[in-house]
Specification:
Blueprint: H1 2-7, E1 13-18, E2 21-34, E3 37-48, E4 59-62, H2 84-93, H3 97-118, H4 129-140, H5 146-158, H6 176-189, H7 194-204
Antiparallel strand pairs: 1-2, 2-3, 3-4
Helix pairs in contact: 4-5, 5-7
């Protein structure tokens, strides 16, 4: 199993089993350099693997509260590495433990260590909750801003857009020639129904001021 081989590179992490569900647990020694600044620390982590792994990525807890709960941590205690849609799409590119650590966990640790040293985020951050999800889709769909993204989502949720109809982004092009391929790409890449679920979740919980 490749995950066992990858974990062997970290001698202070070990596998444990609870009710036939694997856990990877122990001290993760992290060391890197960012913008010429050395960043280094050790974290007591627990990796939880969902039953449908690797269709879904692992979840990670930091057990010693070295990283404050207010720093991008979900209500259930797991680290909020990025928004769910970004995490899924990043992990989907290479659904392995090695890729998860390299492309999701390590950037999170860099952001915390940088923030802890300089009181600023190294590359910006998403807002919490639904607005962070909007920001993700703004970038994924290559839309102009938050208001533009919400308007696009609202139109998509209200009307099943056909390929020959005008794109809800307002470009004047047909949906097929504009955002049709992008939307289809994410509909096929995300879990079934996730795209429309996210859109409904976002537009259903926003104040009317965003649509006026």
């Amino acid at each position: 199993m490749r995950e066992l081989e990858v974990a062997s590179h970290f001698p202070d992490l070990s596998w444990r089993w609870y009710n036939d569900i694997p856990l990877l647990k122990g001290i993760y020694h992290f060391k890197t350099e960012y913008r010429g600044v050395p960043l280094q620390d050790s974290f007591n982590l627990e990796f939880n693997f969902p039953v449908d792994y690797p269709d879904k990525p692992p979840l990670v807890r930091e057990l010693d509260n070295k990283i404050p709960a207010l720093f991008h941590r979900n209500p259930d205690g797991y680290l909020c590495l990025c928004t769910p849609v970004e995490q899924h799409l990043t992990f989907l590119q290479e659904p392995t433990l090695e890729s998860f650590i390299l492309n999701l966990l390590n950037p999170y640790l860099i952001s915390w260590l940088w923030y802890d040293s300089f009181s600023e985020m190294p590359w910006g951050e998403r807002r919490h909750g639904s607005m962070g999800l909007v920001e993700s889709y703004r970038d994924l769909l290559k839309l102009k801003d938050i208001r533009h993204t919400i308007s696009f989502m609202l139109e998509y949720v209200r009307n099943k857009i056909h390929h020959k109809e005008s794109c809800p982004c307002g470009s004047g092009l047909s949906f097929k020639k504009c955002h049709g391929n992008i939307v289809s790409k994410y509909e096929n890449s995300l879990p079934k129904g996730q795209l429309i679920y996210d859109f409904v979740y976002i537009v259903g919980g926003l104040n009317e001021k965003y649509f006026n």
